[in-house]
Amino acid sequence: MPLTQSLYESAEALNEEFAAEIAEKLAEGIAQRGRASLMVSGGRTPLPLFKTLSETDIDWASVDVSLVDERWVEESSDASNTRLVKENLLVGKASAARFIEIKSAEADATDAALACESRLSAMSQPFDVLILGMGEDGHTASLFPCCEQLEDGLAMNRGRVCIATQPTTAPHQRMSLTLPAIVASRNIYLHLTGDKKRQVLEDAVANATATEKPIVAVINAAQVTLKWAP
Ligand SMILES: O=C(O)C(O)[C@@H](O)[C@H](O)[C@H](O)COP(=O)(O)O
Asked: What is the pTM of this model?
């Protein structure tokens, strides 16, 4: 599948145009199906986009928001993607959106995966807009090249929407959407900033297998739009 590339001169330009495009796709979903779904990634890259989106005119009361992946930590932790989203996206105009929690009280995310799938099933699926990030090791969502659960995460025929993963090269157990749940989404974006990540992506697409660099699994299976700025 081809990777559509939207390259911007600055992160500010990217945020403005990307937020407007997300607004348009969510409005389409609401017009056609009554509600729309927005799946976001955590990490540092989306922070300025969250701020722009939170002030964008969208019928937020008709939007369900959740996470592509979560670190299995308390919401009070700085590493919590839930906290990041609640403090930076679900504020201002976007505070009217409904947030579907990925994290729950179980100590081990493995014991929480089926209940998490059931909460996500309340959202309009396939997801209208899904935004991925990527690590410099080629992981996306919490599908890490090093994790034992990668085969399960990439399997297209096991009927799973999310699984627990345990990276060995990054902290925290995770909950992650699986490849089939990601690639079923209506509009899939890969949001990257900086030359280094663009180089990692180019090298991965040219030279790596899906298990070596899981971002390749997504690009091979779906139409993905890269949103990149320096
Ligand atoms: O919770 C997470 O860790 C993610 O959702 C993860 O997949 C992230 O998108 C990449 O690790 C990039 O992270 P940065 O944006 O911080 O570089």
From this structure: 0.98
